[in-house]
């Protein structure tokens, strides 16, 4: 007779535990969308949405803020892209990282930054409108031979994560406190130029 109330109490305690609640709240990394024609440049923004109540965030105590990110974006078909580079933008543009790297290979580009919380706090807006705050931009140069269609921009779920400055706390898709939103580039066909003919008397 007492098992049901005790079981319900145990469930209630688990639900009310802050870590359990925080574990179900996810911050969001988003890769934007863009369009261009073969041989042109396309800028794709990167966003992070700091969701209130998540493990890391501007609403959390010192030492538990989002101060680092590692974002890997895979693009396909790789042959449609001549080159791609990453640059900080938006709320990180004026900050100075303690570590920064953007390794790339055919078909992928990564954005890796770490900032000091005491001197370069990333000024996230808690619960900002989707997709959140812009933290960077990917500069794509489309190949001149790129066929019309879509270049997919997929975030690598294994290597993408958010972290605090010290790297002691992280958010990943594996721990269910990070969500990923993929993007794309639409390659439009080049519109042929029609020359008007004139009759010469």
In short:
By secondary structure, the protein is mostly beta strands. The protein has two helices and 14 strands; from the N terminus they run ααββββββββββββββ. It has one domain: Immunoglobulin-like (Sandwich).
Kindly describe this structure.
With 201 residues, this protein is mainly β. The protein has a single domain (25-187), classed as Immunoglobulin-like. The protein is built from two helices and 14 strands. Strands 2, 4, 6, 7, 8, 10, 11, 12 and 14 form a nine-stranded mixed β-sheet that branches. A five-stranded mixed β-sheet has the order 5-9-3-1-13, with no helix packed on it.
According to CATH, the fold-level topology is: Immunoglobulin-like
Binned strand content: 35-45%
Major sheet characteristics: 9 strands, mixed
List the domain count as a whole number: 1
How many H/I helical runs? 2
Count of strand segments:
14
What are the segments in which pLDDT stays under 50 over at least 5 consecutive residues? Answer: 1-23
Element pattern in H and E: HHEEEEEEEEEEEEEE
Which structural category do the helix and sheet elements fall into?
mainly beta
Overall CATH architecture: Sandwich
Query: How helix-rich are the residues, as a percent range?
Result: under 10%
The CATH class assignment is Mainly Beta
| Residue-averaged pLDDT | 89
**Basic shape:** elongated
Radius of gyration: 22 Å
Instruction: Give the termini distance in whole angstroms.
Output: 107 Å
């Amino acid at each position: 007779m007492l098992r049901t109330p005790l079981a319900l109490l145990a469930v209630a305690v688990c639900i009310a535990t802050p870590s359990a609640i925080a574990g179900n709240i996810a911050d969001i990394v988003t890769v934007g969308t863009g369009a261009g024609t073969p041989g042109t440049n396309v800028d794709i923004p990167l966003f992070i949405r700091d969701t209130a109540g998540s493990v890391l965030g501007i609403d959390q105590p010192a030492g538990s803020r989002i101060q680092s990110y590692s974002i890997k974006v895979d693009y396909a078909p790789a042959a449609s892209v001549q080159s791609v580079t990453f640059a900080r933008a938006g709320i990180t543009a004026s900050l100075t990282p303690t570590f920064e790297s953007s390794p790339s290979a055919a078909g992928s580009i990564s954005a890796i930054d770490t900032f000091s919380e005491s001197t370069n706090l990333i000024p996230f807006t808690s619960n900002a409108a989707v997709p959140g705050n812009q933290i960077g931009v990917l500069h794509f140069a489309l190949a001149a031979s790129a066929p019309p269609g879509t270049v997919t921009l997929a975030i690598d779920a294994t290597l993408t994560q958010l972290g605090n400055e010290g790297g002691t706390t992280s958010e990943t898709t594996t721990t269910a406190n990070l969500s990923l939103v993929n993007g794309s580039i639409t390659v439009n066909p080049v519109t042929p130029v029609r020359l008007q003919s004139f009759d010469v008397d």
